[in-house]
Write a structure and sequence with these properties.
heterodimer; A: Penicillin-binding protein 1b fold; Penicillin binding protein transpeptidase fold; 5-stranded mixed beta sheet; 28 strands; 40% helix; B: mainly alpha; 0% strand; globular
C-alpha cells in the first residue's frame, strides 16, 4: 500500500486557491475601486467652479455740495459693514463727531480705476456736504444679489498669492501642522487623534489632513463610516500626486464651507470675509483672520452671529496657537486678543432688494443667457440707492397704517432727469412675492391726461394751454352701439375753460372734447412713439385713461416730463463687467422721439400747479414739501385704482394703491397714493 | 467677350473709387470740433454752471481719453452725469468721445440733447452743432447735418452796430 501525501498537496492547493482568491478580489474589487477614486480625484482637480454673477448697488459718491443727510450716510456706512469707533479710525472704521465724519474707506476696484482705501473727512450741514477731503470719493458698492446656479453656492475664487501670509500659515498651524511633509494622510495625526478619542471616550479630535478635508468637502459625504474614511484617504493620496502643495492650499481656501447665509452656502475665503466682515480678504486684520480659521472646525457651532462667546473663545485659542507656533509675535497676539469680533452689521439690516432684483433680472436676461449669469462671474453694477430703497420699503410697509389693511401698494423711484432706477417696492408686505410694480397691469385713469394735452400741443398747430376748451356734457355712441357719457368728478360742467385749468383740475369732459378734436388715431400714434401699444384703440375712454399699465410703465411715461423730454426709459443696470474686469455692456441712451421742449415745459407748468392748487395740493398745503413739485393724480371707477406720479428736481416716484381682486376702495389718487408718495418724500 | 471684360473692369474701378469715397478719415476732435468753436467771437459766452466734482471728473475723463482709454473715459463721464444729470458740458463731452470712437449714433443722440437743451450762445453751443453735423453725416442724415451746420452761426451774438 502506498501512503497518500495529502498534507503537502492540500497546503499547496490551499495556497494556490488563496492566491487566486486574493487575485480575484484585487482584480474584481480593488482595481475598480482604484479607478473610481482616480476618476473622482481627476474630477476634483479639473473641476471648474460655477461663479455666480454679482449684482451691486450704486457706489455712494461723496463730494462738496452733495445732498446727503447724516442719517443716510450713517445708514450707508453701517450697510457696508463699517465699524463706528471713538478713536482714529482704521481701515473699515469711521468716527462720528456731531455732524462731522472721519471715514477710513475700504477701497474698491472699479473698472475705470481703483478707488484706493483713504481717510475721508467730511462735514454735513442742512442735509448737504459742506466740506470734504479729498474733493471727490466714492465708497465701495453694496452687493445686493447674486445669480446662482443650482445648489445656491456663493463663491469668488482667489489666488493663494493674494492671501495674507498669516492666514495661509495660520491655517496649517491649526488644521494640519504636518501638511508640508505628508502625502495626503498623516499617520501621526491619525494616531494622535485616536489616542485622544480613546482617552476621552468619544470623538473629540479628527485626524484628517487639509487634503482629506478638501476631499470631504468636494465629495460631500454625510456619514462617518470606515469606507468613507478609506475613500477620503485614497483620494487624498492621489490628489497629492496630481497637485502641488500650493495648489491644494489654494483649492482649499476657495472650496471650504464657511457657513450659511439663509439658503445660500458660503464657500471660500472671499465670500466668508465678505459675509462676516464685509471686507476683501487682503484687508482682514489678524483677529479677523483668526476667527475665519477658527470657524472652519464647525461653521454652525462657532457661528459668531449666533454664538459670539463661543466664537470669541475659539478665535482666541487660534491666536494662542499662532503665537505658540511663531506665526505672530507677542504684541500681535496680545492686541488681537483684546479686539472685539468686529462683525459686519449688514446681516441685521432689513433691506429688501428682491423687488429691485426682479427688474435687474428682466433687463439683464435680454443680453445674457441664464448659463452665463450663473457661471461666468459677471459683475452687474446697478443704480439702486440702498438708502432710498430702505425708505421706500419702510414707506410701503406703512400702507395699512396710513390707509387701510385691505389695499396693497407699489412704488417705483428713479432719478428725475437721468432715468436711473433707484428703488422698487412691489408690495406693502415682506411676505408677498408678487411684484406689483412690475406685473400688476391696472387702469391708469387721469394719469393719462398730461399725455393727452402734450399730444394736442404736438398735433394741433393752433393749440396751447391758454386756449379755450369745452367742459360740457357729451354723449357718444361707440362702435358697439352703447352710449358713453363721461362725467366730471364733481358732476358739474364748467363750460368754457382754459386747457390749463382743465388739466390742473382734471376735468374729464374738457379732456374728452379736446381729445375728439385731435382724434383717437393721432393720439394712439403719439402713444406708440412713447413705446405704448394700445390694442383696444376704438374707444374715446382712452382719453380718460382706460388703458392698463404697470406702475413701472407709468414711471417710464412720467420720465418724459421729469427729464424735460430727454429721457423716458428707466434703467436699472449701469454696466456689466466680466470677473476679469473687461467691460461687457453698458446702458446706452436710445434715440427717442423728440418732442418740443417748449410743449413739455407747458405741461410741466400745469403739473406744478396741480401740486399747489389742483388735485395734488395736499403736497404743499398739508405735507409742506419744499421746492417746486410736479405731478398728477389718477383714480379709476369706484376707486379701484389710486395713482400718483410726481417729481421734483431730483426724484421721480410713482405710487399705485388698490386691491389685488380689483374691487372698489374708498380712495382717490389724492386720498390714497398721494398720501404714500408724500410720506416717502418727507422721509428721504 | 472683350466688351464683357471691359465692363467688368470699369465696374471694379467704380466700386473701388466709391468705396474709397465712403472711407472717411477718422474724426479729429480738436481739428474739427473743439478748436473752431474755441474761437467763437460771440459777445455772449455761456459757460454752464457745474458742480466742482463734475468738473474734476470731466478733467479725469479727458486724461483717460488722452491715454486712449476710451471706455474708461465714457464711464467716467457717465459718473459725472450721475452727479450732474442734464449737464450740457458732460453731455457734450460724451458726444465727442463717442464721435471720436466711431459710435456715431450715440454721438448723434447726445449732441442732439445739447443742441436742444444746452446753451444757445458761445463755444459749447458751437461744439454741439459741429458734433451733431459730423455724427449726422456719418449716419447719413443729411437734413440734420445741414440744419446743424446752418445753426452754428446762431451761437454767435455779434455786437450791436454803432452809428
Amino acid at each position: 500500500m502506498t501512503k497518500k501525501k495529502p498534507s503537502n498537496f492540500s497546503i499547496k492547493s490551499l495556497l494556490f486557491r488563496l492566491s487566486l482568491y486574493f487575485f480575484g478580489l484585487l482584480v474584481g474589487l480593488v482595481t475598480p475601486w482604484y479607478f473610481y477614486i482616480n476618476y473622482v480625484t481627476e474630477t476634483i482637480v479639473n473641476e471648474q467652479w460655477e461663479i455666480p454673477s454679482v449684482v451691486y448697488a450704486r457706489p455712494l459718491e461723496l463730494y462738496k455740495g452733495k445732498r446727503l443727510s447724516q442719517q443716510a450716510l450713517q445708514f450707508e456706512l453701517d450697510l457696508l459693514g463699517y465699524q463706528q469707533v471713538n478713536k482714529t479710525p482704521q481701515l473699515g472704521q469711521y468716527q462720528r463727531y456731531q455732524n462731522s465724519f472721519d471715514i477710513y474707506s475700504k477701497g474698491f476696484d472699479f473698472i475705470e480705476g481703483e478707488s484706493k482705501p483713504k481717510r475721508i473727512k467730511l462735514t454735513i450741514v442742512d442735509d448737504g456736504i459742506v466740506n470734504i477731503s479729498p474733493e471727490i470719493y466714492r465708497l465701495e458698492p453694496k452687493v445686493i444679489g447674486h445669480f446662482f446656479s443650482k445648489g445656491l453656492e456663493s463663491r469668488q475664487p482667489i489666488k493663494i498669492t493674494a492671501l495674507p501670509d498669516i492666514l495661509v500659515k495660520g491655517l496649517q498651524a491649526v488644521e494640519d501642522r504636518s501638511f508640508k511633509n505628508h502625502h495626503g494622510i498623516s499617520w501621526f495625526g491619525i494616531g494622535r487623534a485616536a489616542l485622544k478619542n480613546l482617552l476621552a471616550g468619544e470623538v473629540v479630535q479628527g485626524g484628517s489632513t487639509l487634503t482629506q478635508q478638501l476631499v470631504k468637502n468636494k465629495l460631500q459625504y454625510n456619514q462617518n463610516s470606515l469606507l468613507r474614511k478609506l475613500h477620503e484617504a485614497m483620494a487624498a493620496m492621489l490628489i497629492e500626486q496630481k497637485l502641488t502643495k500650493k495648489d491644494i492650499l489654494e483649492m482649499y481656501f476657495n472650496e471650504i464651507y464657511w457657513g450659511q447665509d439663509g439658503p445660500v452656502a458660503i464657500h471660500g475665503v472671499v465670500e466668508a470675509a465678505t459675509y462676516y466682515f464685509a471686507k476683501p480678504v487682503s484687508r482682514l486684520n489678524i483677529a479677523e483672520q483668526a476667527l475665519l480659521i477658527g470657524i472652519i472646525k464647525g461653521p454652525s457651532w462657532y457661528n459668531p452671529f449666533k454664538q459670539a462667546k463661543r466664537a470669541l473663545e475659539r478665535r482666541n485659542l487660534v491666536l494662542k496657537m499662532w503665537f505658540e507656533t511663531g506665526i505672530i509675535n507677542k504684541n500681535q497676539w496680545q492686541s488681537a486678543t483684546q479686539m472685539s469680533l468686529g462683525l459686519s452689521k449688514q446681516w441685521r439690516l432689513k433691506t429688501d432688494f428682491d423687488d429691485y432684483m426682479d427688474v435687474v433680472k428682466r433687463q439683464v436676461k435680454t443680453q445674457f443667457s441664464q448659463r452665463d449669469l450663473n457661471q461666468k462671474g459677471l459683475k452687474i453694477f446697478t443704480y439702486l440707492d440702498p438708502y432710498i430703497q430702505f425708505k421706500t420699503t419702510q414707506t410701503a410697509r406703512k400702507t395699512s397704517e396710513w390707509l387701510s389693511s385691505d389695499v396693497e401698494s407699489a412704488i417705483v423711484v428713479s432719478g428725475a432727469q437721468n432715468g436711473e432706477l433707484m428703488a422698487v417696492s412691489g408690495s406693502k408686505s415682506s411676505r408677498s412675492h408678487y411684484n406689483r410694480a412690475l406685473l400688476a397691469k391696472r387702469q391708469i385713469g387721469s394719469l393719462i391726461k398730461p399725455l393727452v394735452y402734450l399730444s394736442a400741443l404736438e398735433v394741433l398747430p393752433e393749440f396751447s394751454l391758454s386756449a379755450t376748451v369745452s367742459d360740457r356734457p357729451l354723449s357718444l355712441k361707440t362702435e358697439d352701439g352703447t352710449l358713453w357719457q363721461p362725467k366730471n368728478w364733481d358732476n358739474k360742467s364748467l363750460g368754457d375753460i382754459t386747457a390749463m385749468y382743465a388739466l390742473v383740475h382734471s376735468r374729464n369732459q374738457a379732456t374728452v372734447n379736446l381729445g375728439l378734436e385731435m382724434g383717437l388715431k393721432p393720439f394712439i400714434q403719439f402713444l406708440s412713439q412713447l413705446g405704448l401699444n394700445i390694442k383696444r384703440s376704438n374707444h374715446p375712454s382712452l382719453f380718460l385713461g382706460a388703458v392698463e399699465l404697470t406702475p413701472f410703465e407709468v414711471q417710464h411715461l412720467f420720465g418724459l416730463f421729469a427729464s424735460r423730454g430727454q429721457n423716458h426709459q428707466i434703467h436699472a443696470v449701469n454696466y456689466i463687467t466680466q470677473s476679469g474686469g473687461k467691460l461687457l455692456s453698458q446702458s446706452k441712451r436710445n434715440k427717442v422721439q423728440s418732442f418740443s421742449v417748449e410743449h413739455i415745459d407747458s405741461i410741466n407748468q400745469a403739473l406744478h400747479l396741480i401740486t399747489t392748487e389742483g388735485t395734488a395740493k395736499k403736497i404743499t398745503q398739508r405735507y409742506h414739501l419744499k421746492g417746486p413739485m410736479f405731478g398728477k393724480t389718477g383714480t379709476t371707477n369706484e376707486g379701484k385704482d389710486s395713482w400718483y406720479s410726481g417729481f421734483n428736481q431730483e426724484l421721480l416716484a410713482t405710487v399705485w394703491v388698490g386691491r389685488d381682486d380689483n374691487q372698489k376702495t374708498s380712495y382717490t389718487g389724492s386720498s390714497g397714493a398721494l398720501v404714500i408718495w408724500s410720506h416717502l418724500l418727507m422721509n428721504l | 467677350m472683350k466688351l464683357c471684360y471691359l465692363r467688368g473692369l470699369i465696374a471694379t474701378i467704380l466700386i473701388l473709387l466709391l468705396s474709397h469715397c465712403s472711407q472717411r478719415k477718422p474724426i479729429d476732435l480738436n481739428d474739427q470740433v473743439r478748436e473752431p468753436s474755441e474761437h467763437s467771437d460771440s459777445v455772449i459766452q455761456v459757460a454752464p454752471m457745474v458742480p466742482e466734482a463734475v468738473q474734476l471728473l470731466v478733467e479725469e475723463a479727458e486724461k483717460l481719453l488722452g491715454k486712449d482709454q476710451v471706455s474708461d473715459a465714457i464711464l467716467t463721464l457717465k459718473r459725472a452725469l450721475s452727479i450732474g444729470p442734464g449737464s450740457a458740458l458732460v453731455q457734450q463731452h460724451l458726444a465727442e468721445v463717442y464721435l471720436s470712437n466711431g459710435q456715431y449714433q450715440q454721438a448723434y443722440t447726445w449732441s442732439s440733447l445739447v443742441v436742444e437743451q444746452g446753451p444757445s450762445h458761445g463755444p459749447l453751443c458751437e461744439r454741439a452743432r459741429r458734433t451733431l453735423a459730423l455724427a449726422a453725416e456719418m449716419v447719413n442724415d443729411v437734413q440734420t447735418q445741414a440744419k446743424a451746420l446752418e445753426s452754428i452761426d446762431s451761437c454767435k451774438q455779434m455786437p450791436a452796430a454803432r452809428y
